[in-house]
C-alpha cells in the first residue's frame, strides 16, 4: 500500500502542532496592551496549553488502541480548528472581564488536539518507515520548525497590515490548516502501530527502568529549553530589547525557527556521519551560552542573535532523545512515545510559566537568566545517560 499521502498528512499535522504552540504568544503583546494581561497571566496561558497536552499525552496511547488512530487524529484536528476559531471569536462575543476565561477555555480545546497529534504522529511514520533512524525523525520534526517559521512570518505580516481591532481574524484564518489535515487523516491509509510485529514492552517494565526516567527527564529539560525561549522571544524583543513588534517577531521567534529547521534538516541528510550524543551534549553547552548572552548582553543585536541561535542549539534535543530512547527500549511502542511526550510537555508547561513568573517580578532579562537552568539540567542528565549506556555495553 502506498502511504506517501499519509506521510505528507503527518507533516501537515506537525504544522498544526506548531500553530498550537506558537500562535498564542504572537498575540501576547496585543493581550497585554488591549486587555491589561500581565506576564504571569500570559505565562499561565502557556502553562494551560502544555498541561492540557500532557494530560492528553497520558491518555492518548490507550485511547488510540480503543478507537483507532484515524478517529483520534481526525478529532484532534477538529479540536484544533475549533480552538483557533474560539480564540478569534471570544473577543467579539464576551465582555472584557470574562475574556481571559474564554482564552483559557479556547486554549484547552486546541491544546487537547495538540496532545493527540504529538503522541500519535511519530509512531505512525515509524510504522510506515519500518525502522525510523535519527535522520528520518529529525526530518519529520523539521516540519514543525518550518510550521513555526510560517506561523510567525504570516501572522506578523497579517497583524502588520490588518487594522488593530481586526486581529481576531488571524486565528480564524489559521483554522484552514487543521481543517485540511482533518480531511487528509479521514481519507489517507493509516498503518496502525499496534499492528507492528515488534514485541511490545509493557509499560510497567518501562516504569521500573532507571534509564527510562532519565529519558523522561531529558525530554522535560528539552521542552523547557526550547519552548521557554520560543514563547518569550517576541515579547522580550519588544520590551527587553526595545525593538518594534514586527522586527522583534522576525528576528526573534522567526529566526529561531529557521535555525532549528536548518539544523534538523542538515542532520537528517548527514545521519550516521556525526555522533548524535556529542551533538546533544555540545548543543546543551551552546544553549546555556545563548540564554546567558540574551539575558546579560547590553547589545540589542547580540541579545536578539542569542535568542535566534537558541533554535540551532535545541534543534536535535527533542527528536534526538526520541530516537535514542526508541533504540534503547525496542518494542516500547506508542506507550513509550506517549510517556516521553508527557515528560516533554511537563518541561514545555513549567519552563515558559516559570520564566514569565520571574519576568513579571524581576524583568524578562532575569527570567531568561533563570532559563539557563533548563539546558544545564539537560547537560547533566545527558552526561548520566551516556555514562549509563556505556556501562550497559560493557
Description:
The chain has 17 helices and no strands. It has a single domain (4-191, 199-388), classed as Growth Hormone, Chain: A. It is globular, with a radius of gyration of 20 Å. With 394 residues, the protein is mainly α. The protein has helices at 4-26, 28-35, 39-67, 69-93, 99-129, 134-161, 169-174, 176-187, 203-207, 210-241, 245-269, 276-296, 300-314, 317-328, 333-362, 364-371, 373-393.
Stretches where pLDDT is under 50 for at least 5 consecutive residues are: 195-199
Number of discrete domains: 1
- The residue fraction in helices comes out at over 70%
Beta percentage is under 5%
**What is the CATH topology descriptor?**
Growth Hormone, Chain: A
Number of helices: 17
Radius of gyration: 20 Å
Quick one: CATH superfamily?
MFS general substrate transporter like domains
> What is the second-level CATH architecture?
Up-down Bundle
Reported for the largest beta sheet, the result is: none
E-strand count: 0
Instruction: Please state the overall shape, judged from the principal axes of the Cα atoms.
Output: globular
Q: Name the helix and strand elements from N-terminus to C-terminus, one letter apiece.
A: HHHHHHHHHHHHHHHHH
- Which structural class do the helices and strands define? mainly alpha
Mean pLDDT: 84
How would you name the oligomeric state of the polypeptide chains in this document?
single chain
Key words describing this protein structure:
0% strand, 394 residues, 84% helix, globular, 17 helices, single chain, mainly alpha, Growth Hormone, Chain: A
Amino acid at each position: 500500500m502506498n502511504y506517501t499521502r499519509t506521510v505528507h498528512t503527518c507533516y501537515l499535522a506537525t504544522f498544526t502542532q506548531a500553530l498550537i504552540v506558537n500562535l498564542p504568544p504572537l498575540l501576547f503583546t496585543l493581550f497585554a496592551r488591549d486587555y491589561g494581561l500581565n506576564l504571569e497571566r500570559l505565562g499561565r496561558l502557556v502553562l494551560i496549553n502544555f498541561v492540557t497536552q500532557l494530560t492528553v499525552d497520558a491518555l492518548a496511547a490507550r485511547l488510540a488502541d480503543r478507537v483507532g488512530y484515524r478517529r483520534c487524529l481526525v478529532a484532534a484536528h477538529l479540536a484544533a480548528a475549533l480552538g483557533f476559531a474560539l480564540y478569534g471569536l471570544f473577543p467579539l462575543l464576551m465582555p472584557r472581564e470574562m475574556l481571559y476565561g474564554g482564552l483559557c477555555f479556547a486554549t484547552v480545546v486546541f491544546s487537547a488536539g495538540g496532545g493527540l497529534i504529538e503522541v500519535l504522529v511519530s509512531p505512525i511514520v515509524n510504522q510506515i518507515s519500518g525502522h525510523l533512524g535519527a535522520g528520518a525523525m529529525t526530518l519529520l520534526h523539521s516540519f514543525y520548525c518550518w510550521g513555526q517559521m510560517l506561523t510567525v512570518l504570516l501572522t506578523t505580516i497579517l497583524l502588520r497590515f490588518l487594522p488593530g481591532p481586526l486581529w481576531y481574524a488571524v486565528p480564524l484564518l489559521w483554522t484552514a490548516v487543521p481543517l485540511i489535515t482533518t480531511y487528509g487523516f479521514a481519507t489517507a491509509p493509516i498503518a496502525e502501530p499496534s499492528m507492528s510485529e515488534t514485541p511490545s514492552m509493557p509499560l510497567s517494565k518501562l516504569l521500573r527502568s532507571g534509564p527510562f526516567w532519565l529519558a523522561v527527564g531529558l525530554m522535560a529539560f528539552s521542552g523547557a529549553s526550547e519552548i521557554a525561549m520560543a514563547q518569550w522571544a517576541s515579547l522580550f524583543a519588544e520590551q527587553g530589547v526595545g525593538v518594534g513588534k514586527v522586527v522583534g517577531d522576525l528576528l526573534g521567534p522567526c529566526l529561531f525557527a529557521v535555525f532549528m529547521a536548518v539544523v534538523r534538516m542538515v542532520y537528517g541528510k548527514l545521519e550516521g556521519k556525526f555522533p548524535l550524543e556529542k551533538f546533544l551534549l555540545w548543543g546543551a553547552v551552546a544553549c546555556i551560552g545563548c540564554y546567558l548572552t540574551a539575558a546579560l548582553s547590553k547589545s540589542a543585536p547580540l541579545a536578539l542573535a542569542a535568542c535566534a541561535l537558541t533554535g540551532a542549539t535545541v534543534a536535535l534535543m527533542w527528536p534526538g532523545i526520541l530516537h535514542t530512547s526508541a533504540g534503547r527500549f525496542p518494542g516500547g511502542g506508542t506507550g513509550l512515545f506517549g510517556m516521553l511526550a508527557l515528560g516533554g510537555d511537563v518541561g514545555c508547561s513549567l519552563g515558559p510559566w516559570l520564566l514569565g513568573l520571574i519576568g513579571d517580578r524581576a524583568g524578562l532579562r532575569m527570567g531568561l537568566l533563570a532559563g539557563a537552568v533548563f539546558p544545564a539540567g539537560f547537560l547533566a542528565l545527558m552526561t548520566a545517560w551516556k555514562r549509563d549506556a556505556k556501562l550497559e555495553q560493557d
